[in-house]
């Protein structure tokens, strides 16, 4: 039983990172490729082995490798945990991760720093797998910080471009704010439980039914702050759109499929804490819903293909939070899995489009690519239909599951459901907008886009356009099979992935949520139900336990399909049937359009309210006064004093032997005289 | 029987002459000879005390005399190296005046 060797899963990519990172510069490209792919493949094989022998395992399986920190009664171990939840995450991370590694071989083939890219990718895999496998908060935090580091390195991969370097910094700093919440949560956990082990904390909570709210709410809210940072939710989502400066495979792997889902995973992992705090759980749901809607509205007007996908990612992560926030953790995780499939696919397909157009990212300069890059088109189509929520594709099943769970949840679930449904419509609209703009109509050129740009309210993306449009323009070409292969596999997964959790309302068995149930089962206590009822008003008192039925599920599925169809229909009219309409519409509702295209000015607001004062304090108070005045001044004074004294004393060393001898004789005589007459005699004899 | 104080006074006089010569003389060889003088003044004290100690205890005490041998060996070695250095300096700088040999200052 003790032969699972979980520690190998993260350590193999780490070995790949070390080999490529230290020696990769000297390796020929095939060797770098081989090392990186092996580093991603071995964990995948190991996870597959785990899946095959899954039924014979007793879960949760905990592998303790030794003590890490021992301080008084507190200790933290190097211990890994395998249960249903971490197994699902392992499958996603290693599976999608490996596919994207393969894709990157094609996409990054001609880039400078090929070895560096793959070293970072393996480093990311190492930290992500550590995060997923960790059995205590501290080890999870190591992975948590580590993926942030890898993300920083990869966003800033083209570090000679200031935009990329700044985006990397922004991502890292915003993430640090979330990490601060995570740290505070850990401190509270240590203070209250004296341990950071998941199982010990959860069993302590389980044996104290009276613990409700209070410090658990505080811990939950701090954990939520951490999750909003990593998973790009309001108020810390601002880094994700900028993270699109990184290479496209990075956007697919880190900023869509895996790393950003860490917050969702963390909430599901620590659900025992959230279950005991209706307030914290409500906050998760509200943040998730608000983010889903907010990001979707911004996504409507973006013109950079990757930015549309970035806002779409934020929006979909909002759905996952909503799922977790209504205590339907398995549906949140289910959406995480299906989203990993179709969003990775969308990004990789977008990368393939960008590759085909030699670096063009502006959708206004695309169009008519359907026949030129057919495989990319068909795989992207699968992803677009999946994310828009058309049955029976993966996105429909998981999103509908979340909406259904929100609908039947007691705490204002109908509102969450309504906003979620509206967001689903918006999702469908902006995804089909992207689809039509990219693949249909006539090929538009840059100049047209530029004129339109000046005419419309856009001014911001202009500088970017010139940067992106690299001069090495080839004719439009389909990508090589090393890139298309992962696309096809992900497309198949996006189509059939939903059947893992086909809802009972539509004749399925919802296998996925039954599978996850042991890991994320909500133990509702009578006491808590009462408090929930108190918190939400008496109206729901009788309706506390989820009271859904197959009929409700079926009706909701029909409604959301209709909404998705509506979104498609509007996009069809605006971007296919009457392509001149959007510009007219934009000029008619100029204020709203301007607000959306400036992303609600959140970046500007943060810049003015948070960044500018901090920079002011840093520049004038800390840098000018403290740094240059106190610290530099102090050390410089000390230095110059020592130098001056030294210069004075150095005159004794004249190089003249007889003067040395004279000093020696003089002080020898003083020593002799003083030892003969005594020290006091020397000092006080007159 | 010569009292020990005679030896010590003689030794002190010799040592003082050595110190004075070291400070006053400018020729390196003379300076070198004054060092030898100081060493041998010390040797004389060692031997005098050794003898005195034997008288007091009633049997032979050789510690001081063995010290003297050590000092003489070191002095011989020093002379060999020192004279070689002096020759090298003379060849290089054509002078033996210590005041003009002050390379080792800051």
Helix-strand category of chain A: mainly alpha
The oligomeric status of these chains comes to: heterodimer
Biggest interchain interface, per-side counts: A-B, 10 and 13 residues
Low-confidence stretches of chain B: none
What are the SSEs and their pairings?
The complex is a heterodimer of chains A (686) and B (106).
Chain A: H1 8-23, H2 29-52, E1 61-71, E2 74-82, H3 84-107, H4 114-133, H5 137-155, H6 162-193, H7 198-206, H8 215-230, H9 239-242, H10 248-257, H11 262-269, H12 271-275, H13 278-301, H14 305-325, H15 329-356, H16 374-388, H17 394-408, H18 413-439, H19 446-455, H20 462-468, H21 481-496, H22 511-520, H23 526-536, H24 550-577, H25 581-588, H26 590-597, H27 602-650, H28 657-677, H29 679-684
Antiparallel strand pairs in A: 1-2
Helix pairs in contact in A: 1-2, 1-4, 2-3, 2-4, 3-4, 3-10, 3-15, 3-21, 4-5, 5-6, 5-10, 6-8, 8-11, 8-13, 10-15, 11-15, 13-14, 13-18, 14-15, 14-17, 14-18, 15-16, 15-17, 15-21, 15-22, 16-18, 16-21, 17-18, 17-24, 18-24, 25-26
Chain B: H1 4-24, H2 28-57, H3 63-93
Helix pairs in contact in B: 1-2, 2-3
Give a written overview of the molecule.
The complex is a heterodimer of chains A (about 675) and B (about 110). Chain A has about 675 residues and is mainly alpha-helical. In chain A, about 70% of the residues lie in helices and about 5% in strands. Chain A is built from 29 helices and 2 strands. In chain A, α16 (about 375-390) runs parallel beside α21. The longest helix of chain A has about 50 residues, at about 600-650. The radius of gyration of chain A is 30 Å and the shape is globular. Chain B has about 110 residues and is mainly alpha-helical. Helices cover about 75% and strands about 0% of the residues of chain B. Chain B has helices at about 5-25, 30-55, 65-95. Chain B starts with a helix and ends in a 13-residue tail after the last helix.
């Amino acid at each position: 039983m003790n032969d699972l060797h979980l520690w190998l899963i993260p350590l193999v990519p780490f070995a790949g990172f070390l080999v490529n990172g230290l020696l990769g510069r000297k390796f020929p490209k095939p060797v770098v490729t081989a090392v990186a792919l092996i580093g991603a493949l071995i964990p995948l094989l190991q996870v597959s082995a785990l899946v095959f022998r899954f039924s014979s395992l007793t879960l949760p399986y905990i592998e303790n490798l030794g003590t890490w920190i021992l301080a008084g009664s507190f200790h933290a171990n190097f211990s890994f945990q395998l249960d249903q939840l971490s197994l699902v995450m392992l499958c996603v991370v290693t599976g999608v991760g490996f596919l994207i590694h393969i894709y990157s071989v094609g996409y990054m083939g001609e880039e400078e720093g090929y070895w560096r890219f793959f070293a970072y990718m393996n480093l990311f895999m190492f930290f992500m797998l550590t995060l997923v496998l960790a059995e205590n908060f501290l080890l999870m935090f190591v992975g948590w910080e580590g993926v942030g580091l890898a993300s920083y390195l990869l966003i800033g991969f083209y570090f000679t471009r200031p935009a990329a370097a700044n985006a990397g910094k922004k991502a890292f700093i915003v993430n640090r704010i979330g990490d601060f919440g995570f740290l505070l949560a850990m401190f509270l956990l240590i203070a209250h439980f004296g341990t950071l082990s998941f199982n010990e904390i959860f069993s302590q909570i389980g044996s104290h039914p009276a613990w409700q709210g209070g410090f658990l709410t505080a811990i939950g809210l701090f954990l939520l702050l951490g999750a909003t940072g990593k998973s790009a939710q309001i108020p810390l989502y601002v880094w994700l759109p900028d993270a699109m400066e990184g290479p496209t495979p990075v956007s697919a792997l880190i900023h869509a499929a895996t790393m950003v889902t860490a917050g969702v995973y963390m909430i599901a992992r620590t659900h025992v804490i959230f279950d005991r705090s209706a307030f914290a759980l409500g906050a998760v749901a509200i943040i998730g819903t608000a983010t889903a809607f907010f990001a979707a509205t911004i996504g409507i007007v973006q013109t950079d293909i990757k930015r549309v996908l970035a806002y779409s990612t934020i929006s979909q992560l909002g759905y996952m939070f909503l799922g977790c926030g209504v205590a339907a953790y398995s549906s949140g995780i289910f959406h995480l899995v299906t989203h990993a499939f179709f969003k990775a696919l969308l990004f990789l397909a977008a990368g393939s489009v960008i590759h085909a157009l030699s670096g063009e990212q502006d959708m206004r300069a695309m169009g008519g690519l359907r026949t030129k890059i057919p495989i990319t088109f068909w795989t992207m189509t699968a992803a677009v239909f999946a994310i828009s929520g058309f049955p029976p594709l993966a996105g429909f099943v998981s999103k509908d599951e979340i909406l259904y769970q929100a609908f039947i949840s007691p705490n204002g679930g109908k509102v969450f459901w309504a906003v979620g449904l509206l967001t689903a419509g918006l999702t469908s609209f902006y995804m089909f907008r992207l689809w039509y703009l990219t693949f249909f109509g006539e090929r538009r050129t840059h100049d047209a886009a530029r004129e339109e740009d000046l005419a419309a309210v856009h001014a911001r993306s202009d500088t970017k356009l010139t940067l992106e449009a690299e001069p090495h323009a080839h004719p439009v070409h389909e990508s090589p099979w090393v890139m298309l292969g992962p696309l096809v596999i992900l497309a198949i997964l996006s189509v059939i992935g939903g059947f893992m959790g086909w809802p009972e309302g539509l004749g399925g068995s919802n296998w996925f949520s039954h599978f996850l149930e042991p890991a994320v089962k909500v133990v509702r206590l009578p006491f808590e139900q009462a408090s929930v009822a108190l918190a939400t008003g008496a109206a729901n008192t009788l309706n506390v336990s989820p009271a859904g039925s197959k009929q409700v599920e079926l009706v909701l599925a029909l409604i959301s399909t209709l909404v998705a169809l509506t979104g498609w229909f509007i996009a069809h009219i605006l971007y296919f049937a009457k392509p001149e309409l959007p510009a007219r519409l934009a000029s008619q509702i100029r204020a709203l359009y301007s607000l959306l295209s400036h992303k609600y000015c959140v970046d500007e607001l943060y810049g003015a309210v948070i960044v500018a004062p901090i920079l002011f304090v840093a520049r004038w108070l800390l840098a000018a006064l403290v740094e240059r005045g106190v610290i530099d001044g102090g050390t410089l004074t000390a230095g110059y004093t020592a130098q001056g004294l030294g210069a004075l004393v150095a005159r004794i060393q004249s190089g003249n032997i007889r003067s040395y001898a004279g000093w020696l004789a003089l002080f020898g005589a003083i020593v002799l005289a003083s030892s003969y007459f005594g020290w006091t005699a020397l000092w006080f004899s007159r | 029987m010569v009292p020990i104080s005679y030896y010590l006074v003689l030794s002190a006089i010799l040592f003082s002459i050595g110190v004075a010569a070291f400070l006053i003389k400018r020729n390196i060889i003379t300076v070198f000879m004054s060092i030898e003088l100081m060493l041998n003044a010390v040797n004389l004290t060692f031997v005098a005390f050794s003898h005195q100690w034997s008288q007091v205890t009633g049997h032979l005490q050789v510690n001081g005399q063995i010290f003297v041998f050590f000092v003489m060996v070191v002095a011989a070695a020093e002379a060999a190296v020192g004279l070689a250095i002096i020759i090298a300096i003379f060849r290089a700088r054509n002078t033996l005046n210590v005041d003009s040999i002050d390379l080792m200052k800051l």
